[in-house]
Design goal:
130 residues, two-stranded antiparallel ribbon
Length: 130
Amino acid sequence: MAKLLYLSLPGSVVSDPRLTEVSLMTGKCYAEVLGIWVALVSLFYQHDGLIDLNEESKRRIVAHLAFQGNQDDMDDTLNNMAIAGLLDQHLLHDKSMLASEEVLEDIHDKKEMVERKAKAAQARWSKKDT
């Protein structure tokens, strides 16, 4: 059975000025850049915040989902997204990995919250046992 992914994006994503910057740099319309960004963010959440483009399978997934299979367009757009600050430039250029600081922070925060809730539940169950 397929796993459903529910992605909650803050409203600020739609009006992020960095998307406008990427649109101007690439010549793509804003809606297309936003669509690419939403596709990338969903992939970040599926891959714990990091996408290794050295892995051919992941490179093909990114190209297919966000760029209709056009790898040249993908490389150019990803580079512009890094210049605009949406992606980590160092990771992209030095290691061919995609990451967004905001997404990594959100994933980290959510993992911490799950751990806190698990500890609280465990403490409640421990009290009931005594």
